[in-house]
Amino acid sequence: MTGQLSRAALSRLPASARPLVEPGAAGTGMVHFGLGAFFRAHQAAYTEAAMAHSGGDWAVTAVAPSSRTVLDPLRAQDHLFSVVTLGAGRTSAGDSPHQIRCGHTIGGVAAGPTRVVGAIAGSVLAAEDPQAVVALLADPGVRVVTLTVTEKAYRPEAAVPRLLIAGLAARARADAGPISLLSCDNLPSNGRTLDRLLTGMVPDDLRDWYAANVTCPSSMVDRIVPATTAQTLDLARADLGVSDLAAVAAEPFSQWVIEDRFAAGRPDWAAAGAVFTADVTPWEHLKLRALNGVHSALAYLGALAGREAIADALTMPGAAGLLRHYLSTEVAASMTPPPGVSVIAYGDQALERFANHALGHRCLQVAMDGTQKLPQRVLPMLAAPDPRLACLILAAWARFAEGAADDGSPLDLNDPLAATVRADLTTEGLFGPGGVLPVADPAHRAQIDTWRSALARHGAAALVAAEAPA
After folding, report:
1. pLDDT by residue (tens digit) across 21-32?
2. Which CATH number does the domain 281-467 belong to among 3.30.70.660, 1.10.1040.10, 3.40.1790.10, 3.10.350.10?
3. What is the model's pLDDT at position 227?
4. Distance CA 391, CA 450 (A)
5. Which residues lie below 8 Å from residue 45, measured CB to CB, with a gap of 6+?
6. End-to-end Cα spacing for the chain
7. Residues 6 or more apart from 39 whose CB is under 8 A from it?
8. Paired residues of 145 in beta bridges
9. Burial status of residue 378 (CB atoms within 10 A of its CB: 0-12, 13-18, 19 or more)
10. What is the DSSP letter of 305?
């Protein structure tokens, strides 16, 4: 089979690879901001599985804030794309995805290694047609807006919140009914964060309407979705028999925990495996500290040691043992997990997921935006009785920020505060009261400085091996 993915090509695909719903059959009930790989591999897949199970007009119109990189291929393919499942050992076409023990396939669907998703009904490029976005938000058929726009977009001057405010104002004028705005970004209390942002931007004459008609539930999302590569496209083409230029790769595991606080209904995401709860906070803390924090530790230590991928970093002698010790002591001491969940078991599962070489998740990709991520992922562990390994992770980030790996090869600091970080790379400059990552306790800053000296003297790989529990 040859050609490109499209609605016309669906009948020629393997049965296990076809969408769970008929593309275009459902009306638009959702708008999503951000056309990145995570949305396509996570929220779009959950929404399609929810519609397949329970019906409803919940098809998604996707808003790309400014880039055409994904938008143009999606439009050329009738907004269809595929998710390539990368289980352990899958590096070429035909290999089977290995299911991680505690994970689940979205919606319980026993699909093949690659499946096409048909949840997206249309798309808008906000930078080119902002009024089309405003009109979407004023449409009474749209009842849920989801967002994956990264931490940097949650500022009053950013484009997305300004579009939301304009759309909500148009919705109020049209008397289009209540709506829920569901953040899916890796922010603590992301719904509350979004609500505070918008509340501070809402015009005075809209405040009462906003309070009565808008809810901002919080959510916790989890699925490792590495950057699409030429290999991703090759795997999709081999599995589908057609070319898919919008294909994404993802691990088998997926999780979505959602605060059940919606103003005008929602898709039946529970049928797709999502967990609804009155309080997302314990789940957020668990993921940010026991998964994301460990991910960051591997990224910085691995990059310093010259390891390209996260899975390679985990193979450093002593790495797994050191991180398990960090989980069982400092992370476990910093939080109360959700009922029935063990921090140590969750952490072991995270390490198993990180060991999946097929993902090719690069250390430099995970290391991005450290000043935005580490305050949620690592700084809370400083409240533990002896946060020496949290201090090591912060020291590894500081050493990474200096710009060179242990062998002298350059390391790129991709961070919105890169200029500020580089202006004063001393421990006091980075972690003192005026630093980008303030650490209140001088003893902790001294511990960070000691670790930085040890990393410079011995290198990350040797230090990890020496510090790992016997």
Report:
1. 999 999 999 999
2. 1.10.1040.10
3. 86
4. 9
5. 83, 106, 107, 117, 119, 254, 272
6. 55
7. 32, 62, 146, 148, 184
8. 31, 181
9. buried
10. T
Cα distances from 398 to residues 149, 358, 378, in angstroms, run 26, 29, 13
Strand order in the sheet with 255-259: 219-222, 255-259, 275-277
What's the token pair of residue 239? 């599995």
Instruction: Answer whether CATH 3.40.50.720 is correct for domain 7-277.
Output: yes
Q: How far is CA 376 from CA 151, 270, 353, 417, 448, in A?
A: 12, 27, 21, 16, 18
Backbone angles phi, psi at 61, to 5 degrees: -100, 120
CB 234 within 8 A of CB 93: yes
CB 200 within 8 A of CB 166: no
Give residue limits of the domains in the chain: 7-277, 281-467
Confidence class for position 89, pLDDT limits 50, 70, 90 = low
Q: HSE of 101 in the Cβ direction (CA atoms, 13 Å)?
A: 7
Q: What is the rounded distance in angstroms from the CA atom of residue 428 to the CA atom of residue 242?
A: 55
Tokens of 61: 């119109």
What DSSP assignment string belongs to 314-355? HTSTTHHHHHHHHIIIIIHHT--PSTT--HHHHHHHHHHHHT
Fold match flag (7-277 vs 281-467): no
Q: Is the pLDDT of residue 103 over 70?
A: no
pLDDT in tens, 415-438: 999 999 999 999 999 999 999 999
Which residues lie across from 61 on neighbouring strands? 31, 122
As a whole number of angstroms, the distance between CA 400 and CA 299 comes to 10
- At 114, which helix (H) or strand (E)? strand 114-117
pLDDT number for residue 470: 83
3-state helix, strand, coil in the chain (%, to 5): 45, 15, 40
Distance, in Å, from the CA atom of 313 to the CA atom of 418, rounded to the nearest integer, reads: 24
Q: 116 and 17 in contact (C-beta within 8 Å)?
A: yes
